Every structure is written in C-alpha cells, then in structure tokens.
Amino acid sequence: MERLLQHIQEFKLHHCHAELEALIHKKREFLSQARGNFLKFRQVFENIQDHLPSSIDLKNRVVAIGAPEDLGPEESKRLYESLDQLRPWRKGPFDLFGIRIDSEWQSWMKWERLLPHIKDLRGRRILDIGSSNGYYMFRAAAHEPLMVLGLEPQSYFYYQYLVIQKFLNQGNVFCLPIPHDEWPKTGPCFDTVFCMGVLYHRPSPVDMLKSIHDSMTKGGELVLENLVLETRQNLCLFPEDRYAKMRNIYFIPDLSVMESWLCRAGFGNIRCVDLTRTSPGEQRKTRWIQTESLKDFLDPHDPDKTVEGYPAPVRAIFLAEAG
Predict the structure, then answer these.
(1) Cα Rg, the chain, nearest whole Å
(2) Which tens digit of pLDDT belongs to each residue from 14-57?
(3) How far is 134 from 155, CA to CA, in rounded Å?
(4) CATH number of the domain bearing residue 313
(5) Cβ-Cβ contacts under 8 Å for 297 (sequence gap 6 or more)
(6) For 239-266, how does the pLDDT look when each residue is reduced to its tens digit (9 = 90+)?
(7) How far apart are CA 265 and CA 242, in angstroms?
(8) Which DSSP string corresponds to 111-165?
(9) In this structure, are residues 288 and 104 in contact, taking their beta carbons and an 8 Å threshold?
(10) Number of domains in the chain
C-alpha cells in the first residue's frame, strides 16, 4: 500500500494525497491488528518464500509466472500447500511455477469479450472495483497503463492478490483491502473504471454509479458488467430472499433500466457490447474451490431457471463515458 503513496506525483494523484495517506494509514493499522480470516490468510502469505520467476506472461489466458524448474521439489510442495490454504480461487486461471490453479471462473472469457470494445489502456489510470485476486488487473497491466488500482475487501481474495504480486512485482499495480464505499471523495482520478459483478450486490445502485462517475476524468470510460434480464420493458427483479443461492443480491435490471441508471448517474454514450448467458464452461466447480458452483445454483430439471425459479444468470457488459 505504501508503494502507492510513493508514486502519487507520477500517477498524477497529488490532489488527493492527504485522503489516500489517511486511508492507507487506517488500513495498515487494521491489517496489523487483524483477527479472523485476515489474520489467518496473512500468516499463510507471510510464510510463502520469495522466488524469482524465470518468465512472466500476462498476455495470454493463463497468467503464468515462472517455470517448474525454478523451484526445487520441496519448495514446490510448500508453495502448493500454501496456495491450497488460500482457497477458494474464484478468478483465474493462474500458473505459478508449474502449479496450475484452475479457478472456478474461466475469467479470460469475459476479458476476451470486452477487450475488443474498450478504449486503449495504454497510459491510463485504471480502477478495478471488486478486483478479487487481481486477474483482470494483471491482464490490464500487459497493455501498459499508467497505473491499476484494485479495491477488494474480501480477505482471501486480497491475500491471493498479494501472493501473485509477490512474484510478479508489477510496479504499477496496487490493491487496497476496502469496499468501494470506503474510497474517499477525491474528485476525478481515473480514466478507466472496471465494475464487474459488483453492482447487483448494492442496495442503492444509482448512488454507486454516481460515486463512480465523480471519481472519473471527463470522457473516462466505465466498463460495467452486471446480471441482467433479457428484456427492454423497464423491468427490474428484486429477489425475495436469494438469487442462485446468493443472499446479497438486490436489483437485477433489464437492459433499459441499466441504461436509465447510467444516464441518471451522469454517463453518456451508453451501449451494451455483450450479452452472455453464464455457462458451465465459464463457471464450474474445481478442486480449487470448496463450495458449490453454477450447476448447483440452477434448477436440475430446468437449466433456464435458478433453484429459486428466477431466470438463469445472464450477464451484460455496458460501456459508458463520464460527462
């Protein structure tokens, strides 16, 4: 976290130096006194040895670090055991010194769906809200942005990121262990914002979109991926309890509602560039998670519905520009 402060001038964030310094100090104190999962996963991370990778590949579907021969047999075994303790690995895949992490999500599918449509990332300041273990941040880093900052409050995702960054050592990639609503009001900072798989977890989606808008430079690009209904009837699903066994799902809009939300938040040039039904080829159970996955969330007699009887998950990618 401290590395971010060291590069404030380089990343042209000097106007919010005081806010970032206060936030980082607060989080440093939290991590040093952490209990529960933050303490558990911090100890796993701290026990992982430094290894110098002979190669790094951020440009292909698998984020690959090093080769099997970079480690001795005992070193490889210890690293495998540590990575296993950081489960569940939701996003990926990764290959760390020949240890293949077959994540629940084949995240390269979403990346390849959105990449042809977004603005060139070279030289841009990027924010990734709900960045998980950093898969998308590291893929973005291959396009030579000025900086990439992730916000990730989940303990295991944050420490997965730290493990990967320990070996990659990408000087322009950072992550803070916070939810988006803890990001201070800094004014326009970011040229590109990724908000993927987050908005439906928020009880006030328009307020969140307004906050994102206010953190972006004029003409900056929002890349928004969300669960949607495949209609244009200005409808919105509000699950009674759970959706696909998830408790914290609030609003699932149809395409017209999403466009209206973005418009009300101040965005323009709004367009839907992809609409994809989630498939077992993209989200499935592997040995790197210890929980259920898509197959368990769908009605076993009708895969077009969730177990609760709602429409099965469909995700849309929207692009919009900050006004």
Answers:
(1) 20
(2) 888 898 999 999 999 999 998 999 999 999 999 999 999 999 99
(3) 13
(4) 3.40.50.150
(5) 244, 245, 306, 307, 313
(6) 999 999 999 999 999 999 999 999 999 9
(7) 27
(8) HHHHTTTSPP-TT-EEEEET-TTSHHHHHHHTT--SEEEEE---HHHHHHHHHHH
(9) yes
(10) 1
